[in-house]
Amino acid sequence: MIYLDNAATSFPKPESVYLAMDHFARTSLANPGRSGHRMALASERVLDDTRHLLNTLFKGESTDRWIFTLNCTDALNIAIKGLVNDGDHVITSDLEHNSVSRPLQALAKAGRIRLTRVASHEGYLNADEVIAAITPETRLVALTHAANVLGTIQPIEPIAQAVRAAGGFMLLDAAQTAGIVDINLSKMPIDMLAFPGHKALYGPTGTGALYVGPRVNLRPWREGGTGGDSSTVTHPEIMPYKLEGGTPNVLGLAGLKAGLEWVIERGVEVSRLHEVALLQKVVDWVAEHSDHWAIGGAWDPTRHVGALSLKPPEGIAPSELGAILDTSFAVAIRPGLHCAPYIHKRLGTFPDGMLRISPGPFNTPEHIDTFLNALAEITDGLI
Ligand SMILES: Cc1ncc(COP(=O)(O)O)c(C=O)c1O
Q: Which CATH code for domain 15-266?
């Protein structure tokens, strides 16, 4: 299989991730922090080391500001629902994944918040337009760092500075950038950073993280055992345990730890440049076939991650193309709306969507050639 669906989840993982999980599962898969024996301590150490690596990579305030989550959706929901109060104003954009749009839309529909959705232009937000939407009631600005449909990296820094100056909180959805784009929390005033462990940090599914900056005090929705102090009648207030309850996915986190080590050793920008170079081949092919094909959004390789969507020729459904690529050519891509309906409406590709290609660090130029030759073969005769 030629896997070009890394924006959904990365595959394959670096070999060290498989080895780390196998070793951990066979030697140390005890309940972290609960029992005090050496296996429990080894398990706890994986959590500590992983928090340390996250803090090193993203330059957060301290390791205890990092909480582990099930995925990015979980992290975003903990952040949004733990922060906003009735009557707040919240700003978001039309580029967002449903894991941001839906919780906010539900709060707005229930009459609990006032929601402003700022429109993008060819896949990019205009920072001034977002900043102009900030009011004294704006408590939260929740934006994606890179659009998952289009791969376009957003101008977050000036927005985050304006949000901070206005006394609001900035939540950044880094699902498509963590591990691919440099994010320096010591320089950027981002209050909460959410991402999955299973995309460009190369952990397994079932992993994710939320950074909760020192200005933020989130209400937890999950209370229970933390493995530490069992004597108090209510959930501990101390971070990170305040926002973590129950046995964590420590096996998955053993994999994430190895993935983080791999990313730190390889360097973040290396992967982005590799993926963008592969996508450049696709962009060039589309330019040669522009009578029938187009890309979604603008192409600026300096502000792009490794995801790109194609508008197929008139009358050919992206879902059909996706199925033929899979069954006849063993190529995995993602057709459809990519959990982001607002941007497809904006681009006029709703409801059929587009064809998204997202290479990863192990893809080669030959993989892209196979994909493009397959597209030409499928559509030859139909157009
Ligand atoms: C921009 C963005 N945000 C959030 C998510 C949700 O991530 P998860 O599937 O880990 O919950 C995704 C997943 O594709 C995404 O691309």
A: 3.40.640.10
